[in-house]
From TrEMBL:
Top-level lineage group: Bacteria
Organism name: Pararhizobium capsulatum DSM 1112
Signal sequence coordinates: 1-21
Stretches assigned to coiled coil: none
Keyword vocabulary terms for this entry: Lipoprotein, Signal
Protein name stated in the entry: Lipoprotein with Yx(FWY)xxD motif
């Protein structure tokens, strides 16, 4: 019985770990080449006006470029780090640079935000 309980506890812990690890990202093909996308397949972007570990995209900017938010239990892993926003929410970052979506992308593989105003870049693997 003790072994069964230990196994059950171990499986329960494993079920929790993915929620605390790096963000669920994937590499997808776009007309701009391979890009990093969130679990939903939508391309992620970085903003040249951000600083490592700090977002400078708020208000109107964040309406057009929604942050890639992390859950409360998320933890940094490898190149994927977390940035705390002014409101206390956590945002995923790649090598310290906060990650965002672009409201004009409609489907997986869209990378229409790449190069916008020369300050937005599609995140690359």
């Amino acid at each position: 019985m003790k072994t069964i309980l230990s196994l059950a506890a171990g499986f329960s812990l494993l079920a929790v770990l993915p929620a605390m690890a790096a963000p669920p990202v994937q590499t997808v093909k776009s007309d701009k080449g391979d890009v990093i996308a969130a679990e939903n397949g939508m391309t992620l972007y970085t903003f040249k006006k951000d600083e490592s570990g700090k977002s400078n995209c708020y208000d109107e900017c964040a309406k057009n470029w929604p942050p890639y938010f992390a859950g409360a239990s998320a933890m940094a892993e490898g190149d994927y780090t977390l940035v705390e926003r002014k409101d206390g929410k956590k945002q995923w970052a790649l090598k310290g640079m906060p990650l965002y979506f672009w409201v004009k992308d409609a489907k997986q593989g869209d990378a229409t935000g790449d190069g916008v105003k020369d300050v937005w870049d599609a995140a690359r693997p």
